[in-house]
Amino acid sequence: xxxxxxxxxxxxxxxxxxxxxxxxxxxxxxxxxxxxxxxxxxxxxxxxxxxxxxxxxxxxxxxxxxxxxxxxxxxxxxxxxxxxxxxxxxxxxxxxxxxxxxxxxxxxxxxxxxxxxxxxxxxxxxxxxxxxxxxxxxxxxxxxxxxxxxxxxxxxxxxxxxxxxxxxxxxxxxxxxxxxxxxxxxxxxxxxxxxxxxxxxxxxxx
Length: 206
Hints:
The structure is a single chain. By secondary structure, the protein is of the alpha/beta class. It has one domain (25-35, 44-205): Vaccinia Virus protein VP39 (Rossmann fold). 13% of the residues lie in helices and 31% in strands. A 9-stranded mixed sheet has the order 1-5-4-3-6-7-9-8-2. A hairpin with a 3-residue loop joins strand 8 (184-193) and strand 9. The two termini are 29 Å apart.
């Protein structure tokens, strides 16, 4: 169903098992993303998502924010999750939309538009997207016991390519500062990542 709506490196890890719990930006582009439909077919899911997917409870309802053409949505659906995916450009989602459990929403998340979603999600996935005004909405939209998996580019990435505009690059420890006060940090990493990028990534639980 389609809906349309108006170089330092540090690492933390919490190895608590899941049952103990209660891409690609271009400044100036809509959504600050390189459209996934310009990527090769059959792109694998992001490694930070796969590394932390064990924290997601069975039959979770997952929000894939700024989903692109759905490489991460496809992975989540393959694990049996219900997935709501949202992006300003959903032209690459026509095949995934046909799969059971997938809801596709077209919406502009920026430009002072209202948050387009109601209710909460068991998990939220944000990969290679940064729009800081959404941070509070992500926290509010996470259900009790829910998981947020977030990864995007950080300062230092300008040495390797786009994005290079500081406005679209996280500062050191910024995701910890944004989410670590209200949510429990399960894993965190930042620094150089193959194949030539500086990224920051966090997994937190409510």
